[in-house]
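[Discussion] Sanity-checking designs against the backbone

I'm trying to build intuition for which residues belong where. Below is a structure token string of 156 positions. I'd appreciate it if someone posts a full sequence so I can compare it with mine line by line.
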């Protein structure tokens, strides 16, 4: 890690719960705005139907994220394990498995398709959302750095 990166990380204050909620909401709103029209076009569905589906999936994902991570943190507190690479990989796999179990039946029902078709759609969405997640969070962090530097001059 470069000195500049380390300096930035140690100087920028931690996110409050309000900011975390704002971050999650912005992530989902931008994702819906970007991907609902593309999904409607690719799947030959109406924008309204695909917009509603992406909002439902986003809502499920946010709720699952809060529930899963609260449970995971409780388990970690009880068992006291470290968050190494193996644990992070298991955490990610367990989170995605739970999300698939929730989202695939919802998408199958909403789109009147088979569970297999909904599963393939979900995998496609996951592959699209991975780069979106990376780019959104990089942009968010850059904007946040500037806002913090402007409002807290001694911290930037």
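Best answer:
Here's mine. Compare freely.
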């Amino acid at each position: 890690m470069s000195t500049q990166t380390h300096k930035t990380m140690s100087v920028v204050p931690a996110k409050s719960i309000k900011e975390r909620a704002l971050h999650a909401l912005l992530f989902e709103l931008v994702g819906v705005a970007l991907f609902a029209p593309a999904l409607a076009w690719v799947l030959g569905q109406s924008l309204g139907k695909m917009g509603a589906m992406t909002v439902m999936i986003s809502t499920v994902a946010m709720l699952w994220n809060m529930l899963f991570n609260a449970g995971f943190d409780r388990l970690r507190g009880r068992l006291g394990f470290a968050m190494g690479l193996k644990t992070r990989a298991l955490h990610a796999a367990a989170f995605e498995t739970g999300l698939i179990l929730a989202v695939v039946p919802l998408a199958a029902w909403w789109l009147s398709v088979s569970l297999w078709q909904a599963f393939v759609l979900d995998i496609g969405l996951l592959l699209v959302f991975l780069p979106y997640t990376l780019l959104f969070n990089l942009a968010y962090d850059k904007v946040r750095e500037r806002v913090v530097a402007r409002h807290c001059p001694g911290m930037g």
